[in-house]
Amino acid sequence: MPSVMIRKNENGELLFYVAKKDLEDVVVSVETDTPDAWGGTVEIGDGSTWYIDPISPPPTFPTTLRFKRA
Amino acid sequence: MPDLTREETQGLIEEVLEVYPEKAKKIREKHLTVNDHAIDQSKSCIKSNRKSVPGAMTIRGCAYAGSKGVVWGPIKDMIHISHGPVGCGQYSRAGRRNYYVGTTGVNTFGTMNFTSDFQEKDIVFGGDKKLAKLIDEIETLFPLNKGITVQSECPIGLIGDDIEAVSKAKGKEYEKTIVPVRCEGFRGVSQSLGHHIANDAVRDWALDKRDGDNSFETTPYDVAILGDYNIGGDAWASRILLEEMGLRVVAQWSGDGSISEMELTPKVKLNLLHCYRSMNYISRHMEEKYGIPWMEYNFFGPTKIEESLRKIAEFFDDTIKEGAERVIAKYKAEYQAVIDKYRPRLEGKKVMLYVGGLRPRHVIGAYEDLGMEVVGTGYEFAHNDDYDRTIKEMGDATLIYDDVTGYEFEEFVKKVKPDLIGSGIKEKYIFQKMGIPFRQMHSWDYSGPYHGYDGFAIFARDMDMTLNNPCWDKLTPPWKQAAGSEALAAE
């Protein structure tokens, strides 16, 4: 369950950053991304997928969240 | 030496790896690569931030070096205790030339060495009492200090001292910021983890001291310089450019910086990050907690300065944008004269670099402004994200080496035959004896600053002075020179 910092890059894409793992990549897809909730399975640029229970209301970025490996 | 093709460079890497035993070869081959612009994710071509191969001589430091030497050390009005045996502090004392303004020993303490000088009994019975006594002594002898940090050396972690408890108690007693930093040298694989630990210590113990205190008058143009350690006056050369374009520099982290600047940083509008590797952690934290955006900039060489100034101005209104253009125009004549003078003398020369945090990629632009080419570069302690950024800066099919060993570096140099090498003091004399001009790129070879337009003039002069020094023609003694050249000289 790494804590992941999610922030927006210059192009407005979401960046998925795990300091301990030296992992920083763009978020390709988010399962639930509605005005009410954000979360579910998240796929990032290197092909790996991560899971978080959907958060409602959606968090404001940047923020640190705890993800699970999906 | 003609340019190496991709195949030749790859061949060179394989040739160098030949001598290693099977296991070491397997580890090392992942750290050496040929640059390929087609790749945008460095992890597919190079491995970094891994433990060095035992037995191979590398040039890394330890977590203590990253915290005391780099991040915390330059904070001038705090006293940084090297907690543990005396050597770590004494042998690294004032080595990084982080310049500062102040009276050393009275209100600033940058070049002094404070240590608890552990003896056998402290290891056996614990050193907490000694630390408490030391803090009392500091308060008596140097009452104008604004805070204390406890920089742990290896034994502190090994014997399990509770420096946090002592720091808390003493901090309460003296009403000062006392920061315990768990930067024992054995942590991590290089100084890089020390940077991270130091950043976390700033976050946990110092940064939020003035949250909720709005007595500091802010302006819309407040910025902080992060990751500039004022080596040879670098941060000052950067600061004047920012101030001339109309920004107000509230804090310098950490060259010539102070604890109060650090506490005021959460109130700025933009964090300017020079050394990404050592300060990105705290920038990310401030972005998350205080909503302060951060951007990386590069103040080496006029091309990159111009780019960076414009990029910084993008965050602000038109007055700053005009200010940026004004600064660029103002210095144009100055830097053009530098280029006109030195470019003909340096054109086409090849450089190999092997340095630390940001320089292996940041100085490439400055060399290119002088018509030089960087043919090989590498980091001591970079992570993947540094290499992601480097791939774009470097030419195609150039060499990239991570945590290079002494042997590999020498072999690369023998084959690539660069005209100039930029690395540290431990490499300097080896390469000078091999007859290759050398500049120390950690300490600017006791010169500097190299940042900003002022720094560029010094940078160009230093490179010319080193490369075109007449001594390099005198390396072959007269009796070994070819007969032809002798006859020519006799005429």
Report on the architecture of this protein.
- The complex is a heterodimer of chains A (70) and B (491).
- With 70 residues, chain A is mainly beta.
- Chain A has no helices and seven strands.
- In chain A, β3 and β4 (38-44) form a beta hairpin.
- Chain A is globular and about 30 Å long.
- The mean pLDDT of chain A is 89.
- In chain B, α6 runs parallel beside α8 and α9 (191-205) packs parallel to α12.
- Chain B is built from 21 helices and 14 strands.
- The model of chain B has no long low-confidence stretch (mean pLDDT 93).
- Chain B has three domains: 6-59 and 343-474, 3-Layer(aba) Sandwich (Rossmann fold); 63-188, Nitrogenase molybdenum iron protein domain (Rossmann fold, 3-Layer(aba) Sandwich), CATH 3.40.50; 222-329, Rossmann fold (3-Layer(aba) Sandwich), CATH 3.40.50.1980.
- In chain B, β6, α10 and β7 form a beta-alpha-beta unit.
- Chain B has helices at residues 6-17, 22-28, 63-72, 86-91, 120-125, 128-141, 154-159, 163-174, 191-205, 234-244, 259-264, 276-290, 302-313, 318-346, 359-362, 364-369, 384-393, 406-416, 425-433, 452-467, 483-490; strands at residues 32-34, 78-83, 114-115, 147-152, 177-181, 222-228, 248-254, 270-273, 294-296, 350-353, 373-379, 399-402, 420-423, 438-440.
- The longest helix of chain B has 29 residues, at 318-346.
- The interface between A and B is small, with 11 and 11 residues.
- Estimate the global geometry of chain B from the Cα principal axes: globular
Largest sheet of chain B: 6 strands, mixed
From the helix content, strand content and strand pairing of chain A, which structural class follows? mainly beta
Counting copies of identical and different chains, the oligomeric state is heterodimer
Number of strands of chain B: 14
Q: Order of helices and strands of chain A, N to C?
A: EEEEEEE
Unreliable runs of chain A, pLDDT <50, ≥5 residues?
A: none
Mean pLDDT of chain A: 89
Spans of chain B of at least 5 consecutive residues whose pLDDT stays below 50 are none
CATH topology descriptor of the largest domain in chain B: Rossmann fold
Radius of gyration of chain B: 24 Å
Say which CATH homologous superfamily of the largest domain in chain B is assigned. Nitrogenase molybdenum iron protein domain
Q: Give the neighbour order of strands across the main sheet of chain B.
A: 1-12-11-10-13-14
Distance between the termini of chain B: 30 Å
**Helix and strand composition category of chain B:** alpha/beta
